[in-house]
Amino acid sequence: QAIEGVKVEGNLMPWPQQKDIAITNFSAGSDAYDIVYANTDLMCLYANSGWIIPLDEYIEKYEEEFNFNDIKPSVFKNLSWKDKVYIIPMVNNVIFLAYRADLFEAAGLEPPKTIDEMIKAAAALTTEDRYGIAMGLLPGTGFINDFNYYLNTVGGRWFDEEMKPVFNDEYGVKALEVIKELMQYAPPDTLTYYNDETTAALQQDRAAMALLWQSRALTMDDPNLSKVVGKIKFVPAPGLTSEKSGNAMVAHDGYGISAFTKHDPDLIFRVIAKATSEESIRKGAELILPARMSVLEDPELLEKHHSWPAALKALETARTQPIIPEWALLLETISRPLH
């Protein structure tokens, strides 16, 4: 109950199902949902379709009360469409490298700072009982997450200035070549892996390292899920050279307001603002990488959450997927020929 006298009922469901239900309801102009949870690519689709409303006037109105200056302008930019903000962020999420510190130390290896070092480490740490790396290469979001990192890091991009696809150039080829080389040291069914399978490979001691969303980091130290408690450490995804981290994926999740709501948007905004406030986010810091810098840079929390320093470093060079409304639907199609 974020606002006194206002009760919010939420439906928890897997991400793909949530997306399908939201699109179905929005397409029909249904007022079944007043608040929608969305990330960057879904925000574009919803905003461009007129399914959610811009929030700038409410952000300005309540800027002091809810301290929106605590959220980086770059985050709001990544949740904007045509220069208007549509989502109030709750979560930062970034891909970084999770690795078995004990195995690297035993082999005399430092955590890789470059893609070449990552390939060499994957080869050196592949044994009869364990793969050097786990990769999530299932068509769709899984494949795009990894390919996006390699493409951007080796110097490529998805589109040129005129939004013409250019990922089928020498950089795109290089990105796929790197993926193919690493596949030699990955589970043989890695082309069917998504985030869950990659996470499980680390947890169950079947891989020495993996590109991992920070949101999965906490499960590495859960004794109910993990055989490698205390053995996993985190660094930014390797770069092309050791001078700069790789351009891994960054995503921001948060809440928007349905254009079809029959309730007062001002009231709904205050509910969202309260739910994503510093006070609320601090309570949820055990589970997420907060979007609010006052929480994310808290010294006590940084010391407690050993994945946060690597995540903060990774955020400095991380990039979103293309911020276009078609992306949420196109990524499945684009990823299949690459796969």
Outline:
With 339 residues, the protein is α+β, with helices and mostly antiparallel strands. Helices cover 40% and strands 12% of the residues.
Summary keywords:
single chain; 339 residues; alpha+beta; 8 strands
Structure description:
- The chain has 339 residues and is an alpha+beta fold.
- Helices cover 40% and strands 12% of the residues.
- It is built from 16 helices and 8 strands.
- The chain has helices at 15-27, 40-48, 56-61, 63-66, 73-78, 101-106, 115-124, 141-153, 170-183, 195-203, 265-275, 278-283, 293-296, 299-304, 308-315, 327-338, and strands spanning 35-38, 80-81, 84-85, 88-100, 209-213, 232-235, 250-257, 289-290.
- The strands form 2 sheets. Strands 1, 4, 5, 6, 7 and 8 form a 6-stranded antiparallel β-sheet that branches. Strands 2-3 form a two-stranded antiparallel ribbon.
- α8 packs across α9.
- The longest helix is centred in the middle third of the chain and has 14 residues, at 170-183.
- The chain is globular.
